[in-house]
Specification:
Elements (H helix, E strand, L loop, with lengths): L1 E2 L15 E5 L10 E6 H9 L9 H9 L5 H9 L3 E5 L2 E8 L2 E4 L2 E2 L5 E2 L2 H14 L4 H13 L6 E4 L2 E3 L4 E6 L10 H15 L8 H12 L7 E7 L6 E7 L5 E7 L3 E7 L8 E7 L5 E6 L1
Parallel strand pairs: 1-3
Antiparallel strand pairs: 2-3, 4-5, 4-11, 5-6, 7-8, 9-10, 12-15, 13-14, 13-16, 14-15, 16-17
Helix pairs in contact: 4-5, 6-7
Bound molecules: zinc ion.
């Protein structure tokens, strides 16, 4: 859903540049709510800095893994962009997905042995044997032994040259490589949603609004202007949601991702009274809705 924007300048830097499409919830998380109210430099600053790692949060990875039957494509895209671990009888190895295929990350161990995928290992064996001056016939016989070697058994394919084939039993997300989501992401989503709510009033030069813009431009949260709570609910639901609670003395915007992970953004100095303004995006059907809840 692209919400039309009447203003002619960027809501962050106020420059009258060409405005481009901004995803309020990062596109990398399946966000579809957009508005053309950021200039290109502000949009790409956000995209390349704190928003870039949005989908490596362990809670997001667990959520999409639990919701994979409801949102198969998004779950696959998010989880396959993240490092994985391959488990075998002989050990654990780091890897990643490329073109739908699990690739082992080549690694040299302290004892000088190499861990590689079979096809790369075959090339390495040839190279090493050729470098050490082994005759062509012996090289070919070593490769034959390598191709025929049983799994999980250490085998000498050439004098002093041993190999073990590790069949992978399980491939799983490497959650230790995850990084908690930068809290500037929900602050950005909440500020932009506030802009949809109050329209061009967002251009008001009051220090209260400027403090929030400064957080996003300088990429640093100012504790006196905004507080973010990270919460989790009891269940995974294939939906994203944003709610503005217009309260006195100040407004709160809730950003909920995959039903499970929620951020409560307290704009400590901004008061907008009135009804609750709610956006929901069902990730399985693609349906989006905006409504006022009295
Ligand atoms: Zn800008």
């Amino acid at each position: 859903m692209n919400v039309p924007w009447e203003g002619n300048k960027c809501i962050l830097c106020f420059l009258e540049r060409e405005l481009c499409e901004e995803h309020l919830i990062p596109e990398s998380l399946g966000g579809k709510l957009t508005c053309n109210f950021l200039c290109r430099p502000c949009n790409s600053n956000i995209g390349h800095s704190f928003e870039a790692k949005a989908n490596s949060d362990p809670s997001i990875l667990l959520a999409v893994s639990n919701l994979r039957n409801h949102i198969p494509i998004l779950a696959k895209t998010i989880s396959e962009s993240h490092p994985h671990l391959g488990r075998s009888k002989s050990g654990v190895i780091e890897g990643y997905f490329k073109n739908n295929e699990f690739k082992v990350k080549s690694k040299k161990l302290k004892n000088n042995s190499l861990i590689q995928t079979t096809d790369i290992a075959r090339k390495s064996i040839k190279k090493i044997l050729q470098k050490s001056g082994v005759e062509k016939a012996k090289e070919e016989s070593a490769i034959k032994k390598f191709d025929a070697s049983p799994e999980n058994v250490k085998l000498e394919i050439s004098p002093g040259f041993e190999v073990i084939k590790w069949p992978l039993q399980k491939i799983e997300l490497d959650l230790s490589k995850g990084k908690l989501m930068n809290l500037l992401i929900p602050v950005k989503t909440a500020f932009e949603f506030l802009a949809l709510d109050i329209g061009e009033v967002i251009y008001n030069k009051s220090p209260q609004l400027q403090e929030i813009r400064d957080c996003l431009i300088k990429q640093e949260i100012n504790d006196e202007a905004v507080k973010v709570e990270r919460l989790s609910s009891g269940e995974y639901v294939p939906m994203h949601g944003i709610i503005v609670e217009r309260n006195n003395p100040y407004s709160i915007v809730q950003v909920r991702l995959f039903g499970w992970l929620a951020f409560k953004v307290h704009f400590l100095k901004i008061a907008i009274e009135g009804e609750r303004f709610v956006y929901t995006h069902k990730l399985d059907t693609g349906d989006e809705s905006v409504c006022i809840v009295k």
